[in-house]
Amino acid sequence: MLDMIISDMMLLDLSDLINKIDEFFNALEQIASEFFTRANLLILAIARISYITLATAGFLLYFSGIDRYRGKNLMIGGLILALITEFMGAA
């Protein structure tokens, strides 16, 4: 009888421990998910600033006649970066 009571108490303690471990990993998963979501948003914001800057610099260089070749390449690079960035943002 005493052995049964002790084993029931051990099972309860083990069940509590498993619940605590499960809660810990759930909280860790939520923190990691929030971190990667914010990191992804930050990367997208930086990429958007970059492609706008590239395209604007290319536009100015091309249409001012300072360096048409480099301006064209910057506009193409900005367009490619914009397509990739917006595709990533939609996913």
Report on this model:
The chain has helices at residues 2-64, 68-90. It is mainly α. It has one domain. The longest helix is centred in the middle third of the chain and has 63 residues, at 2-64. The N and C termini lie far apart (60 Å). 5% of the residues are buried.
- Please tally the β strands and state the result: 0
Count of helical regions: 2
- The helix/strand series, from N terminus to C terminus, equals HH
Instruction: Report the sheet-strand fraction.
Output: under 5%
Shape: rod-shaped
Question: How far apart are the termini?
Answer: 60 Å
Portion in helices: over 70%
Number of domains: 1
Rg over CA atoms, rounded to whole Å, is 28 Å
Structure classification: mainly alpha
- Average pLDDT figure: 88
Task: Report on the biggest sheet.
Answer: none
Catalogue the unreliable spans: none
